[in-house]
Recover the amino acids of this structure.
């Protein structure tokens, strides 16, 4: 590897990030409409992209508050100035293990196998 080259890859924005329109922008914050996205809450990482530049990264933001159908995010790092015609991408948080359908399906299959095993091999 050549010296001076940064080997760490740039983090990618997940493809399943939800896209929100920005309502208003101040010096370091942006307000956006979340509507039915009840999962948007303070502490979530978000990204601002420019649709005119093929979703080029404009800034990274952190959701700091939510009130009704709108939320506010603060800039944590930016490439260019955030504008109202940009879009905010918010990554949906992972479900806790106990809320996962996969977990409960496995638990049910294990319980069923145990019950069948006890009947067949007393």
């Amino acid at each position: 590897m050549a010296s001076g080259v940064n080997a760490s890859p740039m983090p990618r924005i997940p493809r399943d990030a939800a896209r929100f329109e920005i309502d208003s922008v101040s010096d370091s914050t942006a307000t956006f409409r979340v509507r039915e996205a009840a999962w948007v809450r303070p502490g979530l990482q978000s990204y601002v992209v420019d649709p005119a530049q093929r979703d080029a990264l404009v800034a990274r933001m952190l959701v700091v508050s939510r009130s009704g159908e709108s939320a506010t995010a603060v800039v944590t790092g930016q490439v260019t100035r955030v504008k109202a015609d940009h879009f905010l991408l918010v990554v949906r948080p992972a479900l806790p293990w106990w809320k996962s359908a996969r977990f409960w399906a496995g638990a049910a299959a294990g319980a069923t196998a145990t019950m069948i095993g006890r009947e067949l091999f007393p």
